[in-house]
Amino acid sequence: MGPLRFLLSFPLLLLLVICSTRTAQAQSQGTPNNTFIFLACNPDSRVRSGSMAMENIRILVPQLVAKTLQNGYVATSYGQNKDKIYGLAQCRGDVSKKDCADCIKLAGKRIRSCSNKADTTIWYDYCFMRYNKVNFFNKVETGLGIYSYSNKTVSDPKTFNANLGTLLNQVGSQAFKPANHGFGKGKIKLPPSSTIYGLLQCTRDLSPANCRTCLTTASNSFREFCGNQTGCQFAYSSCYVRYDLQPFYFPLDPASTAGGASAARPMLTVVSASP
Hints:
Oligomer: single chain
Protein name: Gnk2-homologous domain-containing protein
Family: Belongs to the cysteine-rich repeat secretory protein family.
Domain Gnk2-homologous: 34-136, 142-248
Main location: secreted
Shape: elongated
Keywords: Repeat, Secreted, Signal
Number of domains: 2
CATH architecture of the largest domain: 2-Layer Sandwich
Helix content: 25-40%
């Protein structure tokens, strides 16, 4: 997806459709793209230039980058009283340390374009970062949803959706185990000769119960927004769900990537903001 930035008015219901392309399968070097997905800067959270809140954001963002490099996740804060800023950063649970580091550094640079907003979130395929003046730790937030879906539909929706439901239940059972820190991935055969790949992830500040709530909401959104497409992903501020008929998580499925790179295919990205 191309480099897009939108200022969203969060209290309003908004559906924004953006035409884009992304590589769905492996590139020639054998790894999928770390695609930029979206940067959301809440216009109602503006802070004054030179204010203590803006200075705290300036200090916090590099801390988020540095601490995420250590173990792929951090939830921390900086500042005092009304100017305190809460921040969280996390890499996808299957990516390498190098891919995590590259992604979170990019996120840390790009998110600074919204440094005069105290409520900002950025999504990449491999990582995620957000900060806010409001303490959002261990809170399920599904008001802002970013979802992308393929422009191709499956030939047998009934069989496909039945298998997809089974896969999401299986992967969800992994994610809900405390030892897995809200992360699960897996695949299921789709007759006659295809495979569905699925991945779920919560931000690691969520309790198992809150992780279940967020992922259930995201998975249910597939029925409304993804409509029998061959691939779809749904990202909230608290969790992320994705499935595809092409392998996208690591390690890549050798049986499906042996043929090398595939061409980028058109995708639609939709931003939904609601109360």
